[in-house]
Write a structure and sequence with these properties.
2 copies of one chain form a homodimer. Chain A is of the alpha/beta class and 463 residues long. Among the domains of chain A are: 65 residues; 245 residues, Type I PLP-dependent aspartate aminotransferase-like (Major domain) (Aspartate Aminotransferase, domain 2, 3-Layer(aba) Sandwich). Chain A is built from 17 helices and 11 strands. In chain A, β8 and β9 form a beta hairpin. At the A-B interface, α1, α3, α4, α5 and α6 of A face α1, α3, α4, α5 and α6 of B.
Chain lengths: 463, 463
């Protein structure tokens, strides 16, 4: 039997170990960071390791690796497993195509383009639209920023930045906006953080006011980032209002839907993106609400010309056959690029757009279950709102930072805290669509039991 | 049985299909780009697809997807399969950790750090060194450029670019250098392309001359990109000489080893990087010479301070527990980040550093086999040199562009062409370490037979 066949058998054996472990211990055995290297043999050495020892150390690693697919993981804006997406990503590992040319990626090019085409159609972008699969939401925002910059000042591709190009984003938006301003040579000081309303949505009148100020100072408004699902509260900026302002001042409008842009699949929730067809670019992460493995991020651009203008580069050694439309390297930041599309395609193809809709809708239903529970229990106070899958709360005035840390350290459940204005709270994310209503209620039970049992520790942690 | 178990069974079944297909048809059935959508049902639809039809369409896709792991694929700077790396990457899909925090990645953080530590040790970087796993070689070069820019002009993080920061790279270097200059707001016009010698290596005296010219013009030399394995010829720039110039003018020296930096594992070939310990940053792609699945790119930085200065950002919602050294998101471009380290670790752990050395050395042995063959056959002319795994040649004065395209279109073997100075030639890359000497000789036989059989077509294609 070939070595590969052996290792595929080992893979199957280890998956069984992993799935059993997840069943029996939904929260992984935690190893303190400072004793990690003493606890598991992670060392790389000159000599080969015997197969049996290798298998044992892999098992140790599997057991101790945080479990992001179980019903007690609520810490991130991803979680769970969509098994048809797993299938696609496993195949992508074996196929190992780089997505730059049709010669090397073949039908995988069509797979990527079909996802992009259907996504553009869902948001009402026209026939000039296209997109690509960046490596994540930060990179999607970055690509949008670079396109906006180059559209406003085409000479900067050749000559570099020569004037102050201004970026607008809400105070509740993702931190990549600040980093990206630095990376793109535009500078963090040129980012304007627009005030939000009490529900975390950008106040469009404040945006208008700020643009007027910048224009009066002879600065150049260049890029507006609106958010569909802010990182903490899961709020949706009013795209329709913002789009009017963007149009009036001829400023690029990007909608960062990394977290919740997947509402494009939901008849019930698509209205949260009202006006999206007026944006210049839109991104969403299928590895968040859709539940594919990491990473599966898309950026869609209303006029594909901008993708070409900012990202194409001739390279005779690479682009040798087939047309530009099939040589995807001409519209990506990267050169070699992993196939992030197949996992999304296998899921979408097998369950249909209606299946994706169910995945998205179910997360909102789970959030409703959580909010209803909180409302009925006076020991809780809530900090988030309808139409959000981030359910933010505090319990019995216990310091949420201490609570989340203790829940993690005691391997009870994995959840994090968030901040908005002057409040700090637990941020409970119902993004794992494989969870049931019972899983959601179980989380609160687990949390309450923990507090009950550890009252003395938490006494000192009242906020 | 759970849906996941079913899909894992389907995965195993499809892998068997794929491996059989690779055995019987090492070059995939080619579909003309313009009939792709009519030939395979890639469409995404509203409704779910029945399991049987889904399986059939997946088989169609597998059969038609270009095969990068077989012994007739020589088109890219990657190829083949290292089965222990496949194992690691399959596990990474199931584990699905994002690499930003210890809370969510746990021991995977240690896995990544151990690879970085050992790599830094191999190139003689000291105790202040560290690194990260960018999404590819272009991104590695970009991160190096941003660090160089920020080190030279720290105010640009806050205020943006305000002066001409000059970039130096050889004419034979990767095209990402031009793109990156644009992305970073520095401008393509500020890239100086330094002449190479006849073997494709940067001429350091020309670099010195150009820096003197720029200084005389009050410009700011900021970044030197040296290449360890140029894209076409596989040449190594003289790092030791370049490092002296970089030091003299206080300019950041990055060594782009995306293609051939993995010679750090070879006692016989490490001398090609002489002076590497004097560089400020160094990158290499384990998905190229080491043979892991895409992507597995590392950037190592002599002083980790620069990684933090350019890439860190506070985010209370994210970094909540454990120390900065274990929260890797503080030194990455991205926020959410796929686990690209595990596949490299499983390979390295199982076969040891000595095993990696064998992989690297074998590629040079295969290149020697190819070069020896070419030298003995007067119908060939060669365009590349010793110490390179890019074997560049022409055959019987046949236009290499036409030859490569026809070999591809007739599904004979997959290989590309390259250009250097005024020459165009076939670039045959011996990077698949699972190939044998016989596979290399077979390539030439296949090529010669094809030319013999298709003499009439190729007559018109003489260069």
């Amino acid at each position: 039997m070939s070595e590969l066949s052996n290792d595929l058998m080992l893979f199957n054996e280890l998956v069984t170990v992993l799935l059993n472990e997840e069943e029996n211990h939904p929260v992984a055995k935690r190893i303190e960071a400072n004793v990690l290297y003493d606890t598991i043999d992670l060392s790389l050495n000159k000599s080969a390791m015997a197969d049996n020892s290798f298998k044992e150390v892999l098992k140790d690693i599997l057991v101790a690796t945080p479990k992001t697919a179980t019903n007690l993981f609520f810490n991130q804006l991803f979680g769970g497993r969509q098994s048809k997406a797993i299938l696609g990503d496993l195949l992508a590992v074996l196929l190992n195509n780089s997505m730059y040319t049709y010669k090397v990626a073949g039908p995988q090019v069509g797979i990527e383009q079909e996802i992009i085409r259907q996504s553009c159609h869902l948001i009402g972008y026209g026939s000039q639209s296209n997109g690509t699969f960046p490596t994540g939401g930060s990179m999607s925002n970055y690509m949008a920023l670079v396109m906006a910059r180059d559209a406003k000042d085409p000479s900067c591709r050749e000559n570099g930045i020569t004037k102050s190009l201004i970026i607008y984003t809400s105070k509740a938006s993702h931190y990549s906006n600040a980093k990206n301003a630095s990376f793109a040579g535009m500078g963090r000081a040129n980012v304007r953080y627009i005030e939000t309303d009490t529900k975390g949505r950008m106040i469009s009148a404040e945006l208008e006011k700020q643009i007027q100020i910048d224009l009066a100072n002879n600065l150049t408004p260049t890029f507006i980032n609106a958010t569909a699902g802010t990182t903490v509260l899961g709020a949706f900026d009013p795209i329709d209002e913002i789009a009017m302002i963007a149009k009036k001042h001829n400023v690029w409008l990007h909608v960062d839907g990394a977290y919740c842009g997947s509402v494009i699949f939901s008849d019930a929730k698509r209205h949260l993106l009202k006006g999206i067809e007026k944006s210049d670019s839109f991104s969403y992460n299928a590895h968040k609400m859709i539940g594919t493995p990491l990473t599966c991020s898309l950026i869609l651009v209303k006029d594909k010309k901008h993708l070409h203008d900012s990202f194409s580069n001739d390279a005779d050694y690479l682009y040798q056959t087939d047309g530009d439309d099939f040589n995807l390297g001409k519209t990506s930041f990267q050169c070699g690029r992993r196939n992030d599309a197949l996992k999304f395609w296998t899921l979408w193809k097998s369950i249909g757009t209606l299946g994706l809709e169910k995945i998205v809708d179910h997360q909102f239903e789970l959030a409703d279950v959580a909010r209803n529970y909180l409302e009925k229990h006076p020991d809780y106070s809530t900090y988030s709102y309808e139409d959000s899958i981030s359910v933010c709360f505090n319990y019995k005035n216990i310091d949420p930072k201490a609570l989340c840390t203790l829940l993690y350290e005691h391997q009870i459940t994995v959840v994090g805290f968030g901040e908005f204005n002057d409040d700090t709270f637990v941020r409970f994310v119902t993004i794992n669509a494989t969870n049931t209503k019972e899983d959601i209620l179980n989380f609160f039970k687990v949390l309450e039991n923990f507090v009950e049992e550890h009252h003395p520790i938490l006494e000192t942690a009242v906020c």
